Input
Amino acid sequence: MDGLVPAIVQDAISGKVLMQGYMNEEAVAKTKESGMVTFFSRSKNRLWTKGETSGNFIELVSMTSDCDGDSILVKANPRGPVCHTGSDTCFEEVNTSKTGFIDQLRAIIKDRKTNPTDTSYTASLFAKGINKVAQKVGEEAVEIVIEAKDDNKELFMGEAADLLYHYLVLLEAKGYELDEVMDVLIDRHKKK
Output
């Protein structure tokens, strides 16, 4: 394809496919250098950084080629709608889910367990042992129940975030994966 390969751009947090473009070696190099996703525009016959006219840039998170080296997966963070039509994606999908961040958070938690530092709260929980981690989940569960009885969204959301975080730490401390919990939920759903 005259040195061009398809580049699929995926939201690094939501996992949604945002768009597809083409890259050559020069576009790959500029993307890595600038941190902004750059394509080779076949219609303009030049490099084109997504967002150069709209301001809706796409920030590079990672870039890998497939097993055959004939396509590229670009994981990125969009700064606004990606499509020229104003849609979140070029496939007219809404891109609002942030649940993909849980996988990033899980990776950070795993790293804190295997590479602890003195300044990491997460590493300090692991160092205190499973009883302390489980205790923190219990404390956060009680706190979210208390906040649920009131009508302060900010406090409730803070406790919800604390509970989710500590629950993920507990799973890691036990050596279990969130996917295993999802398997249980999926299995239960199938039985309905």
Remarks:
- Residues 35 and 149 are 45 Å apart (CA to CA).
